[in-house]
Amino acid sequence: MRVELEIWRQDGPRANGRFESYAVDDAEPEMSLLELLDHLNDQIIEGGGEPVVFESDCREGVCGMCGFLVNGKPHGPQDNTPACRQHLRAFPGVTRFRLEPWRSEAFPVIRDLVVDRTALDELIRAGGTVDVAAGTAPDADSVAQPYLQAEQALDFAACIGCGACVAACPNGAAMLFAGAKLAHLSLMPQGRHERSRRARRMAQTVNEIFGPCSLYGECVPACPAGIPLTAIAALNREVLRAGLRGRSRDD
Ligand code: SF4
Ligand code: FES
């Protein structure tokens, strides 16, 4: 099958970008969007051109490296699916794709479809880790944890840090990402020592770097990890809790 592509090409962070048109005449329904790009790049290289730059690693929905806008949708036409797992067979009849990088002020374009997602790392630095000296790792079973609570924490821990939620949001908010981290850590005993401090720091950083959340919910169908909107409620709850405990309390 023939697939026509319009792809954003940009030589560097300060260069002007533009869409360029390409066609792949022998695309297969089994190809993922990344395999389609691989195939196109072989064609471009054979013709002496510069291949399209995009990110990927695991290609099985685990690492969070892949991601770009496909016809305006983060990751592609299928909801809750990373670009590496979106196959042409899943959207029959669609033979024209417009690929462009995440469009968000917090994610400047590095080259072609690759953006700088350091802003998400800033959020992790602000509160996505446990800072207190916890000694050597305790035995996994030494701290009892209610089953449902552990399952909930794991659901929030599923976030792969791809940034699609930010790209989907009309405000460029990162509340789904920040909420997933806060909810995950506050549900685990290991994350409770600095629970209030973490909530204050993450809320401050998310407000400084990203846009405000208006609860449109556009982030939820874009999220390949299926993080629910309740992550944002969890973030707001953690910030309220931290405020009620007062600035002198870390926990
Ligand atoms: S919350 Fe979902 S969309 Fe946002 S970074 Fe995590 S996995 Fe990606
Ligand atoms: S390449 Fe790892 S999630 Fe897509």
- Average pLDDT, to the nearest integer? 94
Distance between the termini: 58 Å
Strand content: 5-15%
Q: What is the number of helices?
A: 8
Which small-molecule species are bound to the chains here? iron/sulfur cluster, FE2/S2 (inorganic) cluster
SSE pattern, N- to C-terminal: EEHEEEEEHHHHHHH
User: How large, in whole angstroms, is the Cα Rg?
Assistant: 20 Å
* Major beta-sheet overview: 5 strands, mixed
How many β strands by DSSP? Answer: 7
How would you classify the helix and strand content by structural class? alpha+beta
Amount of helix = 25-40%
Low-pLDDT ranges:
none
Coarse shape: elongated
Strand order of the largest sheet: 2-1-5-3-4
Question: Which characteristics define this entry?
Answer:
251 residues, alpha+beta, five-stranded mixed β-sheet, two-stranded antiparallel sheet, 8 helices, 7 strands, 11% strand, binds iron/sulfur cluster, binds FE2/S2 (inorganic) cluster
What does this structure look like?
The structure is a single chain. The radius of gyration is 20 Å and the shape is elongated. It has 251 residues and is α+β, with helices and mostly antiparallel strands. The protein has helices spanning 33-46, 118-127, 147-157, 164-168, 175-187, 195-209, 219-222, 230-245, and strands spanning 3-9, 18-24, 69-70, 73-74, 96-100, 109-111, 114-115. The longest helix has 16 residues, at 230-245. Strand 6 (109-111) and strand 7 form a beta hairpin. Helix 5 packs antiparallel against helix 6 and helix 6 crosses helix 8 (230-245). The site of iron/sulfur cluster has 15 residues, from helix 4 and helix 5. Residues 159-165, 176-177, 180, 222-225, 227 line the site of iron/sulfur cluster.
